């Protein structure tokens, strides 16, 4: 019997190119947090390069755990792991609260280690929440993942830095548009292997186009070292402060919530639905990867939703392809010069490709919702309200500005709030009291109107 596509081992060249495509899709997301936090601490350029390489290295290790797995650790799905953006705000708060900036990273690392270990213990209990994720919930969350990521692509399309003079310029937007068109043309008019690596080819061609426009910066390659190992505890031994630990534990809960949603989304896309055992194993990989990451000077790790879009678009479902991508991440962590090659890709080029990737995630969510039973009035309300709650941080970023910083860690994540809203509304409408109402089980009406049955023939007028 042939292997499931998730367990399929592809030819070496195809594994390498598609694995590299996964790295290209998530590279900016991995390097951004260390650059932001390192700049806030005041690290030198050399130290920033070291911190960034360490995060790439630990992302590769976490990806190995997730894709290949050991014992009951790892979802064994085509899942890329890397530094979670959810931790950036609380880490900046820790930096601001630390008097001696030399202690900031050790305090952060100590908090991440504790949060990771606690999360590892809690993983099997957290995974039992799977029964609260029927298609109406998972479809909503998958759609929100795609919608939440699209602003990232739009930001990339405008340029690398909002403070730059060319941010949002016609050149940058044109370059993003050209990359998008190239990817679409390759997807439309090519076949087989070329069609599957359309995003990678689009990034290469887009970068070549950017060279005469003066957008491509090759200085990262010139300044990078050939070899560099992320020495354990390079910035000092971890320090354990209660406030920092509590803050990062909250981030861990958010990260586990998003990872659960991501695993459910990916399971639908690759036709291997994630059950309770899979989710528990995946969460163990996330949390163990996070606990180990600070040993090599990395931050908290979590699943990368943007790579789900790549799987959905290419239909290459092999977890070994992503494991190869993890190998590239490890090599880039050990070879800063290799890591800097992907840094050459201009941000607008990444933005053009990101529109396709992240839009594919949202489209996958809509496909799941189509199968979720939207002919039921209750499900329509669940989707409507949950999407609205999840979109708040995107459309009104300051909506929760009056809330405490700890609360905002959760509230400013549209994926988390939308997921919680969908789960609670599903419980209220489909499991408590009114779930036995036959009319609710069959009918869909306008949310503001009393319903008439629409599944049968229209009653004759008197």
UniProtKB/TrEMBL annotation:
Keywords: Cell membrane, Membrane, Transmembrane, Transmembrane helix, Transport. Pfam families: Xan_ur_permease. InterPro entries: NCS2, UacT-like, Xan_ur_permease. It is found in: Cell membrane. Its main location: membrane. PANTHER family: PURINE PERMEASE C1399.01C-RELATED (PTHR42810), URIC ACID TRANSPORTER UACT (PTHR42810:SF4). Belongs to the nucleobase:cation symporter-2 (NCS2) (TC 2.A.40) family. Signal peptide: none annotated. This is Nucleobase:cation symporter-2 family protein. The chain crosses the membrane at residues 24-44, 50-71, 78-98, 104-126, 133-157, 169-186, 198-215, 235-254, 320-343, 349-369, 381-403, 409-429. It is a multi-pass membrane protein. Residues 440-462 are annotated as: Disordered. PROSITE patterns: XANTH_URACIL_PERMASE.
